[in-house]
User: Fold this.
Amino acid sequence: MNAFLMLLTLKTVSAAGEIQQKILTIGVVPQFSPRELQQRWQPILHQLQHETGYEFTLLASSNIPEFEKKFETGIFDFAYMNPYHLIVANRAQGYQPLLRDHARALFGIIVVKQGSKIDDILDLSDKIVAFPAPNALGAALIPRTEFATKFNISIQEKYVKSHSSVYLNVALGSTDAGGGVMRTFNAQPAHIKNKLKIIYETTRVAPHPLVVHPRVDNSVKMGVLQAFIAMDKTEEGRSLLDKIPIKQVGHATIEDYKNLLDMELEAFYVR
Amino acid sequence: MSLQKKIVYPFLFILAFLMGGAHFVLLPWAIEEQLEERLISERRQLSLLAVALEPDIISLDLATIHLTLKELENNVPEWQHIMLTNNESIMLYPVELEQNVFAAIDDTSPVLLQNLYFDDTVIGYLKVKLNFSNVIRKIEERFIFIEILLFIIIGSVGLLNYLIQRFFVSKPLEALARSTRRISQGDYTQQYLQVKTRKDEIGDFVTAFNRMAVRLEKREKQLTEAAKQAEAASLAKSQFLAAMSHEIRTPLTGILGMADLLINSNLDMEQSSWASNIRGSGRILLTILNEILDQSKLEANKFELNPVEVDIIDFIKAIEQLYKPQAQEKGLTFQIHIARGLPSLVLLDDIRLQQILTNLLNNAVKFTEKGGITLTIGYSEVPFGKQETEIIHDKGRERQQKQQIFLSFSLKDTGVGIDESLLDHIFQPFSQADNSISRRYGGTGLGLSITYQLIALMGGDIQIKSELEKGTEITFGIITTVLSSVSQEERAQRIEQNNKQNLLPQNQLSDWQSKSSLVILVVDDVEVNRRLIQAIFKKLGHMVETAVDGYEAVQKCKEKTYDLILMDIRMPVMDGVEATSKIRALEKEKNKAQRQQTSHMTPIVAITADLDKHQIAKYLDAGFDQIATKPIDYNSLFSLVNNALSEDVLILHRNPVGEIDELGTVDSVLQAPQANQFDQMLEEVAGLLREGHVAETTQIEPELIDSLGDEVLLQEMEEHFNKMYAESCLYIKNRLSVLETEEKQDVRERVISELHMTFHSLKGNCKSFGHELAAELATRIDQYLKSVESYRDVNVKILHNASRLLNFLNDNKIIRAYSTAGKKILTFVKIFENQKL
Assistant:
C-alpha cells in the first residue's frame, strides 16, 4: 500500500512537474555572439527535447553583467557558465553543477618574450603584465589571485582587451609578460608563438559546468544528464558537444570546484 | 618620290610627333601631377588613421591595431608597408620587419611619417611606405590607350587621305601614264576613258588627253596611209623598172648577138668599126639596164646573193688584169697590196664583189688624173655584233667548223676627191640624191648606191674619206666564210700559173672549131634570138633547126631525134620547162618501146634571160641538162654545151703566133701606107678594143722573169718602165708639135736628133720589157732615121704616124701580137719596112 502510495505520489509529482516545467530555460555565458551561441546550442537543445520530452528555450544575455544578473536572480533552470560564476551562482541561488567536461582542466599561463631575463614569477614583481580583461578566469583572475596570495608580488596590470593583444604585447616587448590560456596560446600564429616562452601554469580547476537550479526536479535533472551522456556516445552528438565545447561528458558535483572556492577569487573580481 | 609618298609621309611625321610628344612629355607630366595629388591624399588618410589608432595604442590593443593595419596593407595597394612604434621606440607593428624596407626612397615609393598623440603627448609614430607603381601603371595604361586611339585616328585619316589620293589622283595618273606609253608605241586602243565623267582637274586632264590621243591616232593613220601609198608607188616604180629592163634586155640581147655575128662576117674595116660601135654601145646599155635591175631588186628586197667557192687571189688578179692597163693608160700607177696569210679559198658572191670593185675602180680611174690607185686587201676577225647575226642566220644549216673572216678592201686614189657636202649622199640612189652628181659625171648614178647595198647585203659596211684635189679613200669589208687557207708558196705558184693562163687571149668565135657536126634544135619565140643562135652554130658547121615555142619543139621531137636542143624558158603557148618535161616523157616512152638497154636522152640546154637561183632546181627537175644565161656569151655557152653532150664537141682552135701572114694579104702589105689607110687601121683596132677584145697586156719576156726571179723587184722595174714609156710617148708627141711650128732648120734638126735618141732608147727598153709592138715600131723608126743622110731629109709625117701609133699602143695597153688587134698593128708596122720609109 505504502509502495503503491509512493508510486502514486511519485507519479503525481512527476505529473505535476511535467505540467509545471513544461518549458525549461537555459542560459549560456556570452562568450560568443548571441547569434553564434544560438547556432551552437540550438541543435543540442533540440536533441535534449527529443531525448527527454521536455521543452527547452535558450535565454540570451547581451553581456556578462546581464548574464550574471540573470543567474543571480535565478531565471535560468539550466545554465552553462565559468567556474567562478558557479561559485557566485551557488552562493546566490544554490545552483548545482550537473555535468562538466571530464577531458580538460582549466588553468592560466604566464608568457614572457623569448630571450627575456624573466624566468620566474618572482621576477615579475613591479613589472607590466598584460591581461585580456580583469575577470578572465584562467588568463587573469586566477593568475592575479595567485600573484597576490600565493607569490605575494605586486604587478602593474595592463588590460589589453584580448588574448591576441596579450601575446602581441609580450612578443613585441610592449609589456614584460602576459596572461593567457593554453587554448588561445596554441591558436596564435607560429611567428608569434616562437617569440613567446611560458614560464608558469596556474592551479588547475574543473572547467565550465552545466548548472541546474535547485527547483528543477531530480528526474528532469537526471533525464538531462542521461540525454547528454547519450549524446556523448553517438557520433552525431559528439560533434554537437564539441561546439560547446565539451570533450567528454561527465557528472559534476560542487566538490569538483572545491579548490576554486578556496582561492577567494571574489576579492580580485572586478565589478 | 611618288605623289602618294609625298602625301603619306607628312601624316606619318605628324603621327610620330604627336605620339612622341604624348609619350615623352605629357605622360611624365601627368604622372608627376598625379603623384603629388596622391601624396596629399595619402597624407590626409594617414593622419586620420593615426587618430583612429590612438585609443588602441593607449589601451595597447595590439590585436585590433594589427587587424586594422594588416587590413590596410592587404587592401590598399599603395600602402606597401606600415610601421607603428610607440614613444619608447618599441615597434608595435608589424611583428617582424624586413630590413631596409623604408630605406629606398624615390618618387614612386615615398615614405610618410605621422605622429600619434594623446593629450599633446606623442605616444607613437606611424610610418608608411607608399608604392605608386600601380598608380603610374594605371596612368601609363591610360596614356597608351590614348596613344593607340591617336594612332588609329590619325592613321585612319592618313590612310583615308592616301586612298582618296590613290583612287582619285594616282591611279588615274598611272593609267594615263600607261596609256601614254601605249600610244607612244602606236597602240591607240588603250585610250584612257575611265574617268571621263569625273568632274575634277584629273577628269579635265583625261578628257583633254583622250582628245589628243584621238587626234594623234588620226594623224598617225594619215601618215601611215601616206607612207603606204609612197611605198606602193615606189614598189610600183621598181616593178615597172624591172619589167622595163627585162623587156629591153630581150631585144638588146638580139642586137648584141647580131652585132657579134656581123663583126665576124666579112666586113670592110669601116663596116667592122660601125658594127663594133653597135656592140660597144649595146654593152654599155646592157650595163645600165643591169644596174637599174639590180637597184629595183635591192629596193624590193628581192636581191639574193649567190655565194660560191672563190679563190680570192685569182679573183684579185683578175681585177688587176682589168684595171691595171686602164690606169696605166692614163699614166697612173696601180698597186695591189695583199695582206700576208690571207686565206685564199672563201665563200662569196664573186660576181657581186666584182661588181662592187668595178664600180669603185671605174670611178677611181675616171676621176684620177695623176698619181695612182692603190687597192689593199686585208682581213680581220668578224666584228662581234656582225658575227652574232651571222651565227643566228646560220642556224639550221649544217654547222661545220667554218671560220668567218672580215675581208676588207681599201681603195685609195689621188684623184679630184669629193666635196664634203656630197659625201653624205654619195651612196644614196639617184632618186634621192643631188642629181647634179650624175649630171656632172655621167652614168646612172646608181653604181655607188648598188655598191653600198651590196656590201650591206654581204654583212659589211663602207666608209669614204675624201679631200678635194687630194684624193679619196674608200674602205669596205664583207663577211666571208673561209673554206681553206693556202700557204704562201702555194699562192705564189698559183699567181704564176695565173699569169700564164692570162697570157691566153680572149677567144673569138673564129677561134672555135667543131669536132663533129650536130643536128641542133633552137627553140625561142624571139626571132632575133633564134637567128643569132642559129648563125653561131651554123658558122661552126652544125645543122640548125628552129621552133617558135615549146609546142612546136615537142612536135618536132616526135618526128626527129636531135643531138642537142637549145631551149628558151619564157615562151607563149608552151614554155621551156613544160616542153622539156614533155620531151623527156616522150623519150621515156620511145626507149621503152624500143627496149633499149641504154636510154637515149637528148641534151637540152636552157637559155634564159633571168636566172633565179630558186628556179635552177626546178629547171633541172624538168630535165634540162645545163642552163645558160642571156645575153649569150658563146665561150660559156660552148662549154655548157660540151658539158651537156658529155663530150668536147666544140673545141678551141687558135692560130699559132707567127702565122700573121695568113691574116693580111700580100696585096694589102704591098700597098703604100696612105694616111687614110693608117687612120683606118687605127680606127679598126680601136673598134676591136671597144668591142671588148682584150689586147695582150703582159709585157715581160719569160726569160726576164727567170733571170730576175724576184717578183717585187720585177714589179718595181715594170712600173718604172711604164712611167718611162708613157713619158717617152708624151715627149715624142710634144717634140713633133714643136716641129709643126718651128721654121729654123737647125732647131728642127736638133729636135729630130732628140727624137731619134728617144726612139733608139725606147727600142731597147721595150724589147727588154716585152713590148713587142712598140719595140718593133721603135726599131723601124730608128732604122729609118739612121738611113737618112741628113735629118733635114726626114719625112715628118712618118714620125707623126709613128707617134700616133705609139700613143695608141700606150693608151690601149697593146703590147703583143697575139690578138686580132695586135696582129693588125704588127702587119701595119711591117709595111713600114717594106716601103723602106
Remarks:
- Chain A touches chain B through 18 residues (CB under 8 Å).
- Residues 126 and 155 of chain A are 4 Å apart (CA to CA).
- The two ends of chain A are 57 Å apart (CA to CA).
- The longest helix of chain A spans residues 2-20.
